[in-house]
Write a structure and sequence with these properties.
The chain is about 60% helix and about 5% strand. The protein has about 60 residues and is mainly alpha-helical.
Length: about 60
């Protein structure tokens, strides 16, 4: 079984914020965009809720 790799969901749904992170020209721009994600994204908060409650997302082979 494979463990979930962060932002896989975001990439799969073509998240516009994820696209901006990938297109960022420097680390400051990338950091600022990630902060926007951390503050507003429901998927991000759900993923961390799972981790904080000892759940794991695993994909069967």
């Amino acid at each position: 079984m494979d463990d979930y790799i962060g932002r896989t969901f975001c990439k799969d749904i073509n998240c516009k914020v994820q696209e901006k992170i990938e297109e960022a020209e420097d680390e400051n721009a990338k950091r600022d965009t990630k902060l926007n994600c951390y503050n507003k994204c429901g998927a991000y908060h759900f993923h961390h809720w799972l981790k904080n409650h000892s759940y794991r997302i695993i994909k069967e082979e």
